[in-house]
Amino acid sequence: MSDETILPDRDKFASAADYAYATLRREIVEGRFAPGRRMREIELAQRLGISRTPTRQALSRLELEGLLALRPRAGLVVSVLDMDAVEELYEMRAALEGAAAGMAARHASPRDLALLTRLLDEETGLGSEPLNLYRHNRELHEAIHMAAHNRYLEKSLHALHDAIALLGPTTLAATGRPVIAHAEHAAIVKAIAERDDALADRLARAHILGALDVRRAILERERRLSARTDQDDA
């Protein structure tokens, strides 16, 4: 994803701690702070232009949410997920995304369907910038979650999306994936619009499991590259 950082308007937040939390959370979720990155309080406070106390409060909140983890000798770092966690995460997401699409097919309002159609149309003109693809993809999926009209499901999916961000670059950065994802999105939205809840559920599950296949390939390439680097340094 792009390294360009545009800090949000601080005046929109009730406190410096809220501003720090929202800003750092976005940096993590959008991949600017990579897994394993050390989160030094002094450095982050200077980056945000605030004191250390609200920065410390924001970091504690992010740790409670699981986006940060405490490591011996390193301190707080952006959480790193192992392969078992990746598999579990995608399996749970497939189940919940399927449920959301199925519920959306039953409960989506005309306004919900209009939003899904608009987002689907916009998808073809996004270009190839991974961050833009990621943001739009999340917006479309969140529109499906909202169309399900189940607040508990929506909250669970929101947490899963944040956890998936810990894996690093979006799978939409993989060659050919945006075209495949768009076709899958179109089929899901069509099933929702036609009120076919069983099909919408099945297509959404398959869509997420397809992303898992791409993620496995990305992680395997990273593992091989790391092993090759270690050999070269030996």
TrEMBL record:
Residues 14-81 form the HTH gntR-type domain. One of its GO terms (molecular function) is DNA-binding transcription factor activity. InterPro entries: AsnC-type_HTH_dom, GntR_C, TF_FadR/GntR_C, Tscrpt_reg_HTH_GntR, WH-like_DNA-bd_sf, WH_DNA-bd_sf. Keywords: DNA-binding, Transcription, Transcription regulation. This is DNA-binding transcriptional regulator, GntR family.
